[in-house]
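Notebook p. 47: complex prediction with zinc ion.
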Amino acid sequence: MDRSRLIPVQRAAIATLALALAAAACAPAPSTPAASAPASAWPGDAALVDLTHPFDAHTLVWPTSEPFRLEKVFDGTTPGGWHYASNTVHTTEHGGTHLDAPIHFAAGRQTADQVPLTRLVGPAVVVDVTESASRDADYLVTVEDVTRWESQHGVIERGARVLLRTGWSSRWPDAVRYLGTASRGEAGVAQLHFPGLHPDAARFLVEQRGVGAVGIDTASLDRGQSTTFEAHRILAAADVPGFENLANLDRLPSRGALLMALPMKVGGGSGGPLRAVALVPRR
Ligand SMILES: [Zn+2]
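Predicted complex, C-alpha cells below:
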C-alpha cells in the first residue's frame, strides 16, 4: 500500500479532464448550428462512459414507489406548421440511476441541491465484488473486500468516490433478476434480494478513508434484505452522498476514472434522477 502512488494517479485523472475541457473549449465553433462537436474535441487518450440507465417505461423503482412516467403534452405539427414536442416527467427521487442526498437518511443534512459539486465530480475507484455477489444475491461488501482491493491498487485517497461493482447492472431491467422480485408494494419489499454494503465497511470508508461519495450498481447501498438501512445512515450522517442503480461499471478501471455524477438540482430534495458519466483514460 504505497501512498506515494496516489498523487500521480489523481493528478493524471485531473490532467485528463483538464485536457478534455481545454480541447473542447479550443475546438472551432461549429460552422452551422446543426454541426455537432467533432469526436476529436476529446483527447485521443480518454473515453466517456455513460453510467446511467435510461429513464423510460422499463425503469426499475422501489416496490412502493410510483413507476417513472413520461406524459405527453404535445407531439406533432402545430397550427403554425412547425413541429413541436413537449412532455411532463413523473418520477420518484429514488428510482433508476439516482442520487441519495444525505438528508434521505439523516435529519438536517444536505439536500440534493446542497450536495457540493466537489463530491459529485472527481476521481473514482471501482471495487469489484462480482465474483462473491454472483454466488450470493444477499452479499455484503466487507472491510476485507476494500482492504484487499487496496493491497492491489493502493490506499483509497481522501475524498475519492468509491463505486461498488457487484455485476448487478447486467440484470437490468429484469425486475426478478435485478430486485429479486417483480411484486409491488410492501409484499415486494419483503422479497427484495440484491447485494449491498456492509455497515462496517460503510463506517470504514467514512471514518478511516474519508471518502467523498459511494455508488453501487444495485437498487440500494443497503442490500435488498436490509430492514435497518445502516450503510445509508452511516454515510448520510457524515454528509456522504450515494449513487444507486449505476450502469457500466465494468467499463471503468479500478483507478484513474474521473466521475461526473450530476443529479437534477431539486431544491430541498432527498435525491433525484442522476446523469452519471466517467472520463476514462485510454492506456
Ligand atoms: Zn435512493
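Notes: Helices lie at 6-26, 117-120, 130-135, 143-153, 175-179, 185-190, 199-207, 230-237. Residues 6-26 form the longest helix (21 residues).
Next step: compare against the earlier run before touching the bench.
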